[in-house]
Amino acid sequence: MRATVVSKGEFRVEDLPTPEPGPGQVLISVTRCGICGSDLHARVHCDELADLAAATGYSGFMRSDQRIVLGHEFTGEIAEYGAHTHRRWKPGTPVVAMPILRRDREPELTGLSAHAPGGYAEQVLTQESVTFEVPNGLSPEHAALTEPMAVGWHAVRKSRITKRRTAFVIGCGPIGLAVITMLKAAGVRTVVAGDFSPRRRELASICGADVVVDPTTESAWEAAPKPPRVTGAADMLNLAFDVMERVRRIPKVPWWYLFRAAHTLDRGPAGPVVFECVGVPGIIDQILTAAPPSTRVVVVGVCMQQDAFHPANAINKEIELRFVLGYDPGEFRDTLHMIADGTVDPSPLITGTVGLDGVEAAFAALGSPDHHAKILIDPRSDRVAP
């Protein structure tokens, strides 16, 4: 099969042996594969990423001196089954799969490991247990976005945001756009998005953001239709005084029970939910400094460098900080069906398509935020420019 191989940061299209499915695995013929921001990072920073992965318990991440086939956002058609599979689908059935394989109970990240070549190829291996049939005649272009959209859905679910709570999305790259799309699918009424790139701001509006701001000229916090009532520590203290003055007017009522009930039901003052989708040093500290009290910050962007922030800012305002990664099988499946039934439209993210010979040009184009969001690879295409 033909595949685009990267080693020491250089791409080459090569003829590789067709992968053979092992126990519990399926070989699929790739119809589309998305280029992810993590692919761009891994191309040049994989050794640093491998060290970080090893520190958290995964030792199989790619190294710069290895020959790697990238690609973990793929869809394709059933080609061949390995041993000990249920053979759930006929050959030619369109499927998507979570990008992870297991060899002798050792997990390998598809497209980010030398032991699990990815979707920048004509064929790729998947684990049958985390492979899902594409429903409703969904196009390969849209099915390929199941993986990045599932990242957005997981972030929204982990945020525990309610429909009336304002959401701020900082950074409108592909993952930020996925988060915006999924917030609106979840029924969140007000989504404020910010990005320096005019093109990304345009895409944020198309994806459903209610307010879009240029951080160089406007504050996202001030642009929200309903500014928070509590904006600082003094407001929090005054709120406590106001509540106590009211509840103590009621005779013979154990007012402390009201505080206990509010705590149990999580009904205290609630600020907005902020989704950090940039992933560069300094962003978390900026958010903690500017965000109002009782904000929940969900860190979706993957910062590759060491970072620092002032904990006192978060402490004084009781800001909650959450970090999220990936998705679970249920979220992956649900995302696929949300796309297939029209609840979610990922098409605004797709800005170009190339063949295997156009991967290097696509990486160069994605280095600028002003034109592209998500470029797909069609292994059967001869396009060399997105």
From TrEMBL:
Record domain Alcohol dehydrogenase-like N-terminal: where: 22-135
Keywords: Membrane, Oxidoreductase, Transmembrane, Transmembrane helix
Domain Alcohol dehydrogenase-like C-terminal, chain residue ranges per copy: 174-340
CDD domains given in the database record: Zn_ADH8
Protein name: Dehydrogenase
Transmembrane segments: 167-187
Organism superkingdom: Bacteria
One Pfam family hit: ADH_N
Listed Gene3D superfamilies: Medium-chain alcohol dehydrogenases, catalytic domain, NAD(P)-binding Rossmann-like Domain
